[in-house]
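haha ok so turns out i had the wrong file open the whole time. this is the CORRECT one, sorry everyone. sequence first:
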Amino acid sequence: MSRRFRWTLIVTVAALLLAVGIGRALLSKRTQVSAVATAASAPALALELTAADVTPARRAELVATLPVSGGIKAVNSAFVKAKVAAEVKTLLVREGDAVQAGQLLGRLDATEYQWRLRQAEEQAGAAQSQLEIAERTLANNKALVDQGFISKTALDTSLSSANGARASLQAAKAAAELARKAVQDAELRAPLAGLVAQRLVQPGERVSVDAKLVEIVDLSRLELEAALAPEDVVAVRVGQRATLQVDGLSAPLAATVARINPSAQGGTRAVTAYLAVAAQPGLRQGLFARGSIELDRRTALTIPAAALRTEQSRPTVLVVERGRAQPRAVQIGARGEVDFGNGREPALEVLSGLAEGEPVLRASVGSLPAGTAVQLPASASASASARAAVPASAPKP
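then structure:
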């Protein structure tokens, strides 16, 4: 093979490779242009919303409420305390036992007090004998004075002795009664009907005077003790209704403001309000409850509190206009609770910026850029269509 032929072959192969590369580049560019044109002509994908993501602004009864929380306590409860210092002899009840007022709960060892009672009774008997002797002596001396055998001074002495013996007898009887009371105090009896909440001692323990032995609570009357801020307690009145949710109970509880403490707590300056709660199975003292007191009711244009967005300088909401999410500045009024279909929830009064029936997006959809295409659920779409069909001359709220 000649040198000239070899160079000719090399140039030909290079030309063919260059032509193939240029062809591939042109084909790739044409494909990209076609894809762009197809994407431009295809409709934009819309964010599908669920019924839980959108709520139309509605005119409803706004219930102004004040949130409260606190512990449930029994109106009537008591500690059975030791009235004498002694050893616990028996204790007949345990936590959860039902007791009646006056029921015997146990006994303290009363041996020492029984001996003291016997001693006091013997002393009273001796004082009775001394009084009888003094009274006989006084009677004899009165007869002798009348006969002139003794002086009046001796009679006065006999009278004083009789009076002293009578006072000694009264003191001895009082001591015997005190000893008898100490024996009776060794019996532990329930001061009220209810359930045993705590058993604080065991038989064999020696307790001092006023030591707590058993706690009894009456669950027939329960209250929520709620601490209120000084600026909030002004709007609270006795008789106002409240709704409470107690940990462990699925159904809410109805309550009523029963009393308001006239004094503020030291340090916190909070004022305690007492809400009467109807007794129900499963409701116990010490459970934590939270809820709200109903302060006022009025009809207003409302939206869920979860729909308000505060990222901008003014309160805004995301409304759906022509299939796209658009921010809208609104003026907010009172706060309260409204039933939007799934039970009462926190809500806001809208003074301006929205019309009744406009779909408002809740915070569950997240942060959407202005103009994001959205697809309303069927129920919200029907509501929006009905609102759009209202004539322009119809009055707006």
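Helices lie at 3-41, 111-147, 152-185, 230-233, 378-388.
again sry for the mixup
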